[in-house]
Write a structure and sequence with these properties.
The chain contains twelve helices and nine strands. The protein is α+β, with helices and mostly antiparallel strands. Strand 7 and strand 8 form a beta hairpin. It is globular. The N and C termini lie far apart (about 55 Å).
């Protein structure tokens, strides 16, 4: 198998030898197959005599500051192994300093199950559909209830106002991704800065990209097999994850970023946005959720900024999936318009 067939900047033989030395029990590397989905960190299925594994690597080329943090993904999933949040088993982290490819990567056990791409869940019947949404809600609440000190993640984020830090980060990332900033995006930045809620002291482990297709469900039923893609995880405000997922209720059920707008949610057994938020609040014993328009507008802005970065990598030739990256870039003005709509009309 040629080096080019792997795409990791390392020969098949060298990768196999490295993994046999680094991972207890690993032997006989066979096929290395790149997963076609995903934009940020290239991910590969490894078939070996000792079993099936997944390798997740930083991409090649010039990277934006603080992006593609596979070491943070590895650390958080390793820390969650003994909690109520299901994650794959972590096996090895190769940092930039020791990686044979020159790019950091980690290896985890392969999980068998289903990933759903359409939030209307046409593949399953109504009871399973309802159960899937309830499982996502329950697992999100469990994540935000994790004692970060007890699992060794007390230093996994910075102190202070999470949303202020995030607005600064994603504003800079957006501006670094485009030569001509969209006035709508810069106007949203200004509104978010003006409406920034006071720090209420809530600190939780947040996933950062909590959505249906980042969760693997078991082959039958609605039970979650594992939560994936923790690159954006940090210590932060739990409303960030909840609002981020609730964007899905507002996006149209078409194209590459499907949502639930226009879908007969009641007939399908899918909760309304209000009911989903209320279920989360009950699980976490929260009396009220203030500043919901801010959280929603921020979620749309943040996703637009992320996708602008994906489009920039596509233009530079560094995207993991260039065709999909260009489509995501076209979604940036759509998301900005939805953020502006929340600002204008409220929740």
């Amino acid at each position: 198998m040629e080096e080019a067939a792997i795409g990791l900047g390392i020969s098949h033989a060298a990768l196999g030898a490295y993994l046999e030395d680094a991972i207890d029990g690993f032997s006989g590397l066979g096929a290395v197959t790149k997963f076609g989905t995903g934009q940020s960190n290239p991910t590969y299925r490894l078939e070996a005599a000792s079993g099936t594994y997944v390798l997740r690597s930083k991409p090649s080329g010039k990277l934006l500051p603080s992006a593609h943090a596979v070491d943070r993904e590895f650390r958080v999933m390793q820390a969650l192994a003994q909690t109520d949040v299901p994650v794959p088993a972590m096996l090895h982290l190769a940092g930039d300093d020791i990686s044979p490819s020159g790019r950091a990567f980690f290896v985890m056990r392969y999980l068998s199950g289903r990933i759903f791409w359409d939030p209307a869940l046409p593949e399953v019947d109504q009871p399973v559909r309802t159960g899937i949404y309830d499982a996502m809600n329950a697992t999100l609440a469990a994540l935000h209830d994790v004692d970060v000190g007890a699992v060794g993640l007390a230093d996994f984020g910075k102190p202070g106002n999470y949303f202020a830090r995030q607005l600064d980060r994603w504003s800079k990332q957006y501006l670094a991704s485009t030569e001509t900033p969209d006035p709508l995006m810069t106007g949203i930045m200004d509104w978010l800065a003006e409406r920034m809620p006071a720090d209420d002291g809530q600190v939780a482990l947040v996933h950062g990209d909590w959505r249906l297709d980042n969760i693997m469900f078991k082959s039958e039923g609605s039970e979650i097999a594992g939560v994936l893609d923790w690159e954006l995880s940090t210590l932060g405000h739990p409303m960030a994850d909840l609002a981020y997922q609730c964007m899905q209720w507002r996006l149209p059920n078409q194209g590459d970023m499907r949502g639930l707008a226009g879908v007969d949610r009641d007939g399908l057994g899918i909760p309304s946005e209000a009911d989903y938020v209320a279920a989360y609040a009950r699980r976490r014993n929260l009396d009220r959720l203030d500043d919901w328009p801010f959280y929603l507008a921020f979620a749309f802005f943040r996703l637009a900024s992320i996708l602008a970065g994906v489009a920039a990598r596509a233009a530079a030739g560094n995207a993991s999936n260039p065709e999909m990256a260009r489509k995501y870039g076209a979604a940036v003005p759509v998301l900005a318009a939805m953020a502006a709509g929340v600002i204008r009309e409220g929740p």
